[in-house]
Specification:
elongated, 2 domains, 46% strand, mainly beta, six-stranded mixed β-sheet
Length: 174
């Protein structure tokens, strides 16, 4: 299993007990759907290693308390501390309507209601305050804010996203 086949679920942030239990901070708006996991992948030395879950339960709403098989002591827990957690992409809940996962829209065409076809989404920049579509238009990079008010329609079947950007935004790049 490679990182490309998985999505980032969260990170182990601290030990919970002397019996090897750990707490993981989940990167999700719906932590409850990950409460009964059978297994997860931990990133250890740049490799994804499967860990089987003996028990798990939500702890203070955003943390997941995990007990892994073969993690029996504090020393065992120390060995996996700060590890990133991953799950296979097929375990992501399906989104509908105008909601989407960033990885799912790479390669989609962006069309603007007023401008017409803008180009292909080559990546998402989420390192800024507001996430941006990074669009390639014949070799020119165009950044479009991923604002709910701009996104009119996500058409998964035709791999297009219809947006209505403020007048002149796209022309700034051309």
């Amino acid at each position: 299993m490679t990182k490309e086949d998985c999505f980032y679920l969260g990170k182990i942030v601290k030990k919970y007990s002397f019996k090897g239990e750990v707490l993981a901070k989940l990167d999700t708006d719906q932590p409850e759907i990950y409460e009964n996991l059978d297994a997860v992948f931990l990133e250890l030395r740049n490799n994804l290693v499967p860990f089987f879950v003996e028990s798990s339960q939500l702890h203070k709403s955003t943390l997941l308390r995990l007990k892994f098989e073969d993690v029996e002591t504090e020393a065992d827990a120390d060995a996996i501390m700060k590890s990133n957690l991953y799950l296979p992409l097929n375990l992501l809940p399906k989104l509908e309507g105008n909601k989407f996962y960033f990885h799912e829209v790479i390669g989609f065409t962006i069309e603007d209601k007023n401008f017409g076809e803008v180009g292909l989404i080559k990546s998402i920049n989420d390192s800024t305050l507001q996430a941006l579509f990074v669009v390639d238009r014949h070799g020119t990079e165009i950044l479009i804010p991923m604002n709910d008010e701009f996104i009119l329609n996500v058409d998964r079947e035709n791999k297009t996203i219809l947006v209505e950007t403020p007048e002149g935004l796209i022309d700034l790049y051309l």
